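As the next step, I selected for study a record pairing a protein sequence with its backbone structure tokens, which the following lines show:
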Amino acid sequence: MKAVRRDRKGTSQPTVSITKPPFEEVVERYYDKVLNLAFRLMGDREEAHDLAQEVFIHAFQAYDRFRGEAEVFTWLYRITVNLAKNRYKQLQREREHRWEILEEMDEEEEETEPFEWEDTKLSPETLLEQKELAEAIQKAIDELPEDQRVTLVLRDIEGLSYQEIARIQGCSVEAVKSRLFRARSALRKKLKPFLER
């Protein structure tokens, strides 16, 4: 379906009207992808579920303004990345605040009771090694600078193209490639002890 848009000079320019799928279909189609991205960005399942719900709330509220200039999943990924950045910063502030409170409590308490560790059974060695490696990878990803972390997750875990990542992050393809190179180099360095086993 073609529509006509008039510019400031009064001349008409044909535009293509985009037919958007119902929002329920968007949720059904992309929820798992958004949830997976949220988990990779946040490193915590509960945070990922909360973030995915927040993404779709924001998307629902803005869906009538979605003009189809980008693909729906690119638009959702951009919302996810932006909300993850905000949440990550909020969590860092909360952690810093908790440490301040704990330090104050330590100063106030003269004697503390020793902490007793819960007795747990160890998993088989291979499961333990896999768990350690998975935790090391997630920790290494979490420690990357934000732009590198997001780029790495979008490319290596979500499998997006350089062009899609550039649109989501609002930068050039060259910047995406540079961030990805630095992120991968940092990961190799941090994971070297695990890779040499």
